[in-house]
Amino acid sequence: MKKTLHISNERPGLWQDTNVTYAQVPGWLGHTTLDLQLTVLRQFEDQSRPLPVIFWFGGGGWMTVDHNVHLPNLVDFVRAGFVVVSVQYRNSNQAVWPAQLEDAKAAIRYIKARADDYQIDPKSVVVMGESAGGHLASMVAVTNGQKQFDVGDHLDQSSAVQAAIPWYGVVNPLSAKQNSETSDFDFVYRNLLGGEPEDHPELVSQADPHTFISDATVPFLLLHGTADEVVPVADSRSLYDDLIRHGVDADLYELTGAHHMDEAFMQPEIVKIIVAFLNKHLNN
Predict the structure, then answer these.
(1) What's the number of domains the chain is made of?
(2) What is the pLDDT of residues 249-283, one digit of tens each?
(3) Measured between alpha carbons, how far is 151 from 36 in angstroms, rounded to an integer?
(4) Which residues contact 241 (CB under 8 A, 6 or more apart)?
(5) Which residues form the BD-FAE-like domain (predicted)?
(6) Of 127, 135, 152, nearest to 206 (Cα)?
(7) Which long-range contacts (CB under 8 A, 24 or more apart) does 70-76 make?
(8) Residue 253: phi, psi to the nearest 5?
(9) Cα separation of 65 and 88, whole Å?
């Protein structure tokens, strides 16, 4: 069989910049240097204008981080016109809180310093993540302007973001531990904080988005499954209520029957909700 085809370019091709080192931090008890990496997904056929950027933080209970694991699903957002940056951050065996927050902000500053290289609009920055990464996305957003968390290179760049989208994110570490339907993951909160949440309210407060919410907090879109057995959906409801009390533009979508890290969150309907939310708030 021989055919001649006339193909129209209905969608752009994509670049993948894999395992880009954005920071070097102390590793192995301070005796080595640890590279922190990120991967960038972006369009390469339309470079006529800068694009909004989504920073993605994967889950893993702060115990393990694979910043490439969700790349196939994140392509949906690249197709919708966003640059996606998936970020490695230190796990709790490597450093305790707030090292993870410092890493996230360092990644944002790194990409902003190279905005032209990666075709991003540094004034249209979104943080999104799941579970432990959802907690990190929330904390990045509510600490806009908190200079104590900006550590490392590119300090001439702002780590401020314009919107946050936590998926079934941990909120208050003590509440998450005490109200989870399972005790299998109780240890992750001790490892993150460097002490038991019950015994260290000051450490819990430093890792609780509620502590930092103000009337200047950026818009939030929260996603949570009603059957989440690991992170209580009530904690997302509490965060939503607190955001609303402060006059913050916030939406909460509860997915009926969805469990923790459920495939329901990867469905086209959710992508449409997220894209609509971002188009609304990033175009203001």
Answers:
(1) 1
(2) 999 999 999 999 999 999 999 999 999 999 999 97
(3) 14
(4) none
(5) 46-243
(6) 135
(7) 70/130, 71/16, 71/39, 71/41, 73/266, 74/41, 75/14, 75/41, 76/268, 76/271
(8) -110, 120
(9) 6
Residue 92 located in a structural domain: yes
For residue 1, tell me if it sits in a domain: no
Name which of 184, 224, 183, 178 is nearest 201 in CA terms.
178
- Any idea which residue has 């531990």 for tokens? 177
Under 8 Å CB-to-CB from 265, ≥6 apart: which residues?
130, 167, 168, 223, 225, 255, 258
The average pLDDT across 14-23 equals 95
- Helix, strand or coil for residue 41? strand
What residues contact 157, with CB distance under 8 A and at least 6 apart?
108, 109, 112, 113, 122
Torsion angle, alpha carbons of 242, 220, 39, 23, to 10? -40
Distance CA 267, CA 250 (A): 21
| pTM (two decimals) | 0.96
pLDDT, one tens digit per residue, over 46-75 is 667 899 999 999 999 999 999 999 999 999
Residues of the domain holding 138:
15-282
CA distance 108 to 112: 6
Rounded CA gap, 226 and 181, in Å?
A: 12
CATH number of the domain that 37 lies in?
Answer: 3.40.50.1820
- On whether residue 210 sits in a domain, the answer given is yes
